[in-house]
Amino acid sequence: MSPTIISRAGWDARPPKRRFTPLKKWRVQGIVLHHSGVKNAPKGVTAVKAYERFHMDSRGWNAIAYNWLVDEEGVIYAGRGPSVVSGATKGWNSRTESICFTGWGDVKVPEAALKSIKWLIADIQHRYDNKLWVKGHRDVGNSTCPGNWLYDWLKSGMPERVEDPVNVDWDGVSAHLEGLKNIVLASPLSKRKRSRGEAVRAVQQRLKDLGFEPGGIDGIYGYNTKRAVKMFQVRYASFLKVDGVVGGNTWDVLFS
């Protein structure tokens, strides 16, 4: 089920001081996750309006800084909205879309918010052909944002808590993996091609689960990921080529 999404008009956003600048799709590299940085912050639309006042009136910015905001109930709010330059990540605003969790990311984040953040990241990835990295604000700036708990969740691959295995939608899981495999079949993943996106992240998480260290679960096919893939291929060298590239055969063995 898709989360509730509230448009700028829906939360009565103020008009920007200047027209929003469209992002150039070919320049966009990633998604940056933020948090409020405030304990006991306001909730829901009250938090969104508070951000808007602070950014526009106190900071003098064009509009609320973030492309998207997600509250503790999992409601998604369009800040500046999709595919426009944000004001949230200095040095990266024209190359990323930004998401802000309106709560405090240093403590456990409600499950509803995590599901919406993950859904939103997947939706943004889809608009950019699943080629974006996903990072916390601290990865690209001098900050502790998005808080230790939320950052650890992000870096561990955005896991979903499963309380009862009987209720897992295995058909949905299989369909998701099949979709990622189609991406791999069309264009095998490699460091040489600087592969990025959800398929790379899935490979990294699977390698880590199997005891091969790929580095960060960040969706970027770097040196550590290539090394982990080669180590995996060595283990199954009787029927896999050891080249550090994830094509259809390596994918099938990895997820078998």
> Biggest sheet, strands in spatial order?
1-4-3-5-2-6
What oligomeric assembly is this protein in?
single chain
Count of structural domains? 2
Shape: elongated
How large, in whole angstroms, is the Cα Rg? Answer: 19 Å
Estimate the strand proportion.
Answer: 5-15%
Order of helices and strands: EEHEEEHEHHHHHH
Number of strand elements: 6
List the helices and strands and how they pair.
Elements: E1 5-6, E2 30-35, H1 44-58, E3 68-70, E4 76-78, E5 96-101, H2 111-127, E6 133-136, H3 137-140, H4 148-155, H5 170-186, H6 198-209, H7 223-235, H8 248-254
Parallel strand pairs: 1-4, 2-5, 2-6, 3-5
Antiparallel strand pairs: 3-4
Summarize the structure.
The chain has helices at residues 44-58, 111-127, 137-140, 148-155, 170-186, 198-209, 223-235, 248-254, and strands at 5-6, 30-35, 68-70, 76-78, 96-101, 133-136.
Key terms for this structure?
alpha/beta; Lysozyme-like; 2 domains
